[in-house]
Amino acid sequence: MNISKALSFTSMILLSGSAMASVTIDLPEAVNVLVANGGKANISSDGFFSSQKKLQLEDGLQQIVFRYEPFFQEGKDNIGIESDVTVAVFNAADAELTLQVPQYRSSREAREHISGMQWSLTNQDGQKIPVTQDKLLKDGIQFGRNYYTEMSVYNQSDKVASVPEYAPQSGLSAKTIPARSLRTSSQTKASATTAETMLHYWYEQADAKTRSRFKQFINQQ
Fold it and tell me: Hey, what's the signal peptide range on this chain (predicted)?
């Protein structure tokens, strides 16, 4: 390969890297990202046996939903402790970040402190970046939660970490609708969309008999 071709090839690589600038977050093995920017989290790893995980995001306003799930080997038992589900909102572009969570020495210590855990996002210089956070709480049994639907409802509320752009509008993904149109839509349309989303949400939570009664009610209208 001559010098001109080598320079051209190098330029293509640099331009390609610049065009694909994005945000990556190094994740601890025990952190489970449930939703990222209203959709499925794009997680990569260094290999099947690697504990290193990276969350890939596009540049801009970010909203991630995650849970910390540390495990402890105590005698013959493998004990898992779960944190509450955290909603985090922050701005980032062309950045490599690390999600930092506390390290507990035992399951007892985790149970005592995990509900109020102090976590952070740091950049390559070790500096914390500003984050707005909240908890995604649900009363009653936690099994079988639909986090996409829960976040759809959450993002159409006025809660501290809600992002309207990541709530589906009229069945469409927010990414297919200009942010300006989302912000300027009438209150009536927003209320109708919220009601529809909540109907879907509660229908999914209902048992078979309740769903059947609901269908009968709809058919009689």
Answer: 1-21
pLDDT of residue 54: 96
Q: Are 204 and 193 in contact (CB under 8 A)?
A: no
Report which residue type is found at 22. Answer: S
Band (pLDDT 50/70/90 cuts) for residue 14 is very low
Per residue in 21-77, pLDDT tens? 699 999 999 999 999 999 999 999 865 555 679 999 999 999 999 999 999 998 888
**Secondary structure class of 54 (helix, strand, coil):** strand
Q: What is the pTM of this model?
A: 0.68
Give the per-residue SS3 of 58-121.
Answer: CCEEEEEEEEECCEEEECCEEEECCCCCEEEEEEECCEEEEEECCCCCCHHHHHHHHHHCCCEE
What are the residues whose beta carbons fall under 8 Å from the beta carbon of 54, sequence distance 6 or more?
A: 24, 25, 26, 27, 43, 44, 45
Which domain, by its residues, includes 148?
A: 139-221
27, 64 Cβ separation under 8 angstroms:
no
Domain co-membership, 204 together with 101: no
Tell me, yes or no, whether 47 and 143 share the same domain: no
